[in-house]
Specification:
Structural class: alpha/beta
CATH architecture of the largest domain: 3-Layer(aba) Sandwich
Number of helices: 20
Largest sheet: 8 strands, mixed
Strand content: 5-15%
CATH class of the largest domain: Alpha Beta
Shape: globular
CATH topology of the largest domain: Rossmann fold
Bound molecules: adenosine-5'-triphosphate
Distance between the termini: 76 Å
Radius of gyration: 25 Å
């Protein structure tokens, strides 16, 4: 720890603090007053002329963002208000000084030590990992942690939930992993990562719901990579069985998770195996036999592989169910359970943007003492996506989508079009090309894995600007540049609707979902209308007046309109 006297405090701090500037997308929906209150929450008010009286900022997140031209903390990039007496580097707080000195010390050592993982008997939930690399980081009082969680929209349920972290370097991740995160452009954790990473690294089982596009994938990959890398670097035997399994419902999603895992685990003792249908089983077995740390797979193919081949799962201590509500539905549930039962008391981490009480019950039956984490506004379409619902009769839908795609004002490629059937996906993609001249690809479950990969590659690299897909691309897919989705056929459930709409926005970027609806979609009206209302989206007259919407409150505006019609 250092004293004020050790710091060069001659840099004038500004009084209008701008904490968490990096997460402004998440915060942009707050009005100015709310923002100011949030900023003021952690930062103590500062007076430029009374520097000596100001307490030294202890935690990195108490420091404001640097303004252009100002010195930046060499650890976290915030305002470098102080100078480290030992290295002469700009730093923002005692926390970052501790981290800086630990880094300097670590550079002199041959290997960086990851945070210690303690394997607990199932049911013990009182453990919290002590970060042995950075033992001097001051902890916040519980009341401030509560206030911080509330400002970041993080809710937790469970006993002794570890405190959120504010930067990746403050929880003992391997240095290489922190470096990979920086290279990937992950300057600081998103709110879900702030809470999930420390909870996961303390070996707790988790059930997590957070908005679409909020960074859930990295929140489970980071602890997995840290764990695998630590186990391998300390291991004396040459045993190379898998240490973690991630299940996801679609091949594309598994592939995407694997790609992200490779980026974040680069240079570490961390190899992956993708186990999905459509690719040759023999190659997948060969890869596993040659030694890997993480298996990422769809339940069906993984069961198939495990039945045909003897894979030693005894070292698997982390089991992730991504899109858990989907994986616990009929169709997947038995396979997911079978895989779970072949593991011996793993830490279970479950994620989705949409969770309901039935899933919670099932999740609780999988493992005891689960911590429940919820961030943002889950089970609702992401607030950053504008929902535009258009009433279109079925036979007019094609013409409507052609009109949209021909309009410079309304069409914002690259765009994803969701349909309900495989045949429909092929027919519509051909029809769009014929009517508009646009190159379009289609993706659905009847295509071969190679065709699906190639179509996705062409779409993601910008070779084609439109992809027509069934629900295959609806969940989890990080279609980075996509800002427009068109729900040509509205899905059967409001949860799938939430996921499909979510493809139009990542990390709080603004997007738009154009949704075609007509009487044939009446099964979803009762759930759809409140969702639109909550988002402030206009509700088409036909939908508002439909008898299938009866009983759903439409708010005072509609009531006034109806009464003025009935009493002309
Ligand atoms: N800390 C971070 N800093 C910057 N970008 C990040 C960070 N964490 C994740 N991302 C990026 O944010 C995007 C969305 O993340 P991700 O796909 O994990 O979202 P998600 O919460 O799983 O969404 P969905 O529910 O739709 O699956 C990705 O492009 C990812 O690379």
């Amino acid at each position: 720890m250092f004293e004020v006297s050790e710091l060069n405090a001659d840099r004038s701090p500004l009084s209008s603090v701008q904490l968490f500037g990096a997460w402004l997308p998440f915060w942009s929906k707050m009005d100015h007053g709310e923002n100011q209150a949030a900023y003021n929450l952690i930062a103590s008010s500062s007076d430029n002329n009374e520097l000596e009286d100001l307490p030294v900022k202890e935690r990195c997140f108490e420091q404001r963002e640097a303004l252009p031209g100002e010195p930046r903390c060499v650890v976290c990039g915030r305002y470098g208000e102080y100078i480290c007496d030992q290295t002469d580097d700009d730093i923002c707080s005692t926390e970052c000084k501790t981290i800086l000195l630990a880094r300097v010390a670590a550079k002199k050592k041959p290997a960086v030590k990851a945070a210690k993982r303690v394997n607990l008997p199932l049911g013990d939930e009182s453990i919290c990992i002590k970060d042995t690399n950075f033992p001097n980081i001051p902890t916040l009082a519980d009341s401030r942690i509560t206030a911080l969680r509330s400002k970041l929209d993080i809710c937790v349920k469970g006993e002794s939930v570890p405190h959120p972290i504010m930067c990746f370097s403050s929880c003992g991740l391997p240095e290489k992993l922190v470096h990979n995160l920086e290279t990937a452009g992950y300057c600081m954790p998103t709110p879900v990562q702030m809470q999930v990473i420390p909870a996961s690294m303390s070996n707790r089982s988790l059930l997590v719901s957070a908005d679409t596009g909020s960074g859930k994938t990295a929140s489970f990959l980071i602890p997995i990579i840290a764990h695998c890398s630590q186990v391998r670097s300390q291991q004396c035997t040459d045993k190379q069985g898998p240490l973690a399994i991630v299940l996801a419902p679609t091949r594309e999603l598994c592939q995407q998770v694997e790609e992200q895992a490779k980026v974040l685990g680069k240079g570490l003792p961390f190899k992956t195996a993708l186990v999905v249908g459509g690719d040759p089983l023999a190659q997948q077995i060969y890869r596993i036999e040659n030694g890997i740390e993480l298996i990422i797979g769809t339940p069906g193919r993984l069961i198939d592989l495990l039945m045909k081949h003897n894979v030693d799962l005894s070292d698997v201590s982390i089991f992730v169910l991504d899109e858990v509500d989907c994986l616990l539905q009929r169709g997947f549930r038995d396979q997911a359970m079978q895989i779970f039962q072949s593991l011996s008391h793993p830490q279970v981490m479950m994620f989705s943007a949409t969770l309901h009480s039935e899933v919670e019950k099932m999740a609780n039956s999988l493992t005891k003492t689960v911590i429940r984490i919820s961030c943002g506004n889950p089970s609702r379409p992401n607030k950053s996506v504008k929902q535009v619902v258009i009433w279109v009769e079925s036979k007019k839908k094609k013409q409507k989508i052609f009109d949209i795609m021909k309009s410079k004002q309304h069409f914002k490629p690259p765009a994803v079009v969701f349909v309900s059937s495989r045949v429909g996906a092929d027919l519509l993609s051909e029809a769009i090309t014929a009517a508009t001249g646009l190159e379009v690809v289609s993706i659905h479950g009847e295509k071969t894995m190679n065709e699906r990969r190639e179509s996705l590659r062409r779409f993601l690299t910008g070779e084609v600007s439109v992809v027509v897909s069934t629900g295959v691309l609806g969940r989890g897919m990080d279609l980075l540049k996509v800002r427009q989705v068109i729900l040509f056929d509205i899905p059967n459930s409001i949860d799938e609707y939430t996921h499909q709409v979510g493809r139009a926005s990542r990390m709080g970027e603004e997007g738009m979902a154009i949704v075609f609806v007509n009487e044939e979609d009446r099964r979803i009206f009762k759930e759809l209308v409140p969702v639109l209302k909550a988002a402030g989206a206009p509700i088409p007259r036909e939908l508002a007046n439909s008898r299938y919407t009866a009983g759903v409150s439409l708010g005072s505006e509609r009531k006034r309109k109806l009464s003025s019609r009935s009493h002309p």
